[in-house]
Amino acid sequence: MPCIEAIQGDITNQEVDAIVNAANTTLLGGGGVDGAIHRKAGSELLAECSTLGGCPTGQAKVTRGYNLPAKYVIHTVGPVWHGGTKNEESRLRECYENSLRLADEKGVKAIAFPSISTGVYRFPIEKASRIAVGTVRERLKQYPQIEKVVFVCFSEADLGIYRKVLEESRVNC
Ligand code: APR
Questions:
Q1: Beta pairing partners, 75
Q2: Domains delineated in the chain
Q3: How far apart are CA 47 and CA 101, in angstroms?
Q4: pLDDT tens-digit profile of 18-40?
Q5: Given ligand 1 and candidates 10, 20, 33, which is best to mutate, with the most ligand atoms within 8 Å of its CB?
């Protein structure tokens, strides 16, 4: 039975096989969690990202983690929230689906997600957390080797929301 939990912290410190980056379509860095990951990983991460040719919204690409504790960074591009009229929910679901697919391909056993799209991209956190937890819970059935998923929330408020959703779906460690 996989363990799914939510913690408060900085995703760049997580001792897991892969961390997920809330990137943009250029994959060339930015602010928020993207900026934190690039700062911690070092310039080699940007050098590798520069060879990837960007990434469409909803898709994901994997790189090494370089100076991060994590072996891999899975860069995924969440949707910008436009009020829910532009398939934002489907795009966000695809971010989690594609990140797990790549993690499985790399033999990842433990993976950490940030709250994708809920910062600069303004996706409502309540809706996003339900999509995140629901999609991960559903897709993990296909990937038995993935034993642990951690939702790393930056704020206490976000942590409370994720923990409530996990409790409701009664999926936790
Ligand atoms: N660890 C964990 N979570 C973090 C960290 C961190 N070090 N830093 C920020 N966060 C949280 C934010 O508080 C928010 O809850 O990550 C969540 C996602 O916020 P953003 O990083 O703004 O990502 P997103 O909303 O997906 O917007 C992506 O922002 O940084 C740019 O290049 C990025 O253009 C892209 C856009």
A1: 21, 61
A2: 3-169 (3.40.220.10)
A3: 24
A4: 999 999 999 999 999 999 999 99
A5: 33
Give the residue ranges of DSSP H helices in the chain.
Answer: 32-41, 43-49, 88-105, 125-139, 156-168
Of 4, 116, 20, nearest to 65 by C-alpha is 20
Q: Which two tokens stand for residue 112?
A: 């950490």
The pLDDT tens digits for 151-168 are 999 999 999 999 999 999
DSSP classification of residue 79: P
Residues with a CB atom less than 6 Å from ligand 1: 10-12, 22-24, 30-36, 78, 114-121, 152, 154, 158
Token representation of residue 97: 């689906």
Side chain identity at residue 10, one-letter code: D
Q: How buried is 123 (Cβ within 10 angstroms: 0-12 exposed, 13-18 middle, 19+ buried)?
A: buried
